[in-house]
Input
Amino acid sequence: MSYSNTPAAKGSQDVWLDAAFELLLESGVDSVRILPLAKRLKLSRTSFYWFFKDREALLEALIARWREKNTQGLVDQTEAYAENIVEAMLNVFDCWLNPQLFDSQLEFAMRSWALQSAPVVREIDAADATRIEALTRMFERYGYDSLAANVRGRTIYLTQIGYISMKAQESLEVRMQRIPAYVEIFTGQPPGCRELQRFHARHGYAPPDTD
Output
């Protein structure tokens, strides 16, 4: 077997997708092209076609991965076990602090891509609807009526998308200081010490000693 036909010489679908995501985040969708990807990976251009029919197939795979990561990641957090709405809200806030659950840079890149692609606009619209519906159902499970649940869900979601769209930057300490107030605004209930302690522990945060 020649070297060019070995798995190492072709890479893998995930390798090509990872590189495509890097280019998308660095330079936008116009930079996601087969030849630059091949050069970045030091693979032959023809090896791309072992995994994707063409560039359009690659772009569709990028959208599918974003959908699975960010939309499903957020939906899963709205459905995670919680004793009360405050704990449920903090589960959702995990998304904004853990890029493994929700990648804000990727979200920004996708929304930038949508500015020049009607099909991606439709994908964004569908994702927005799914995410807001998941947040609405979360509030309904904890006794909020349908209208209040939807308004609260929309407010949470649109606030975070605003953060992403504006590329707002906050230190972990500043964000953690603001989270209790956000929780109370969004749910109508302040978080308790135990709930905040568990949340802080999940994100490796130690509040400053106020004694």
Observations:
- The radius of gyration is 20 Å.
- Confidence is low (pLDDT under 50) at residues 1-8.
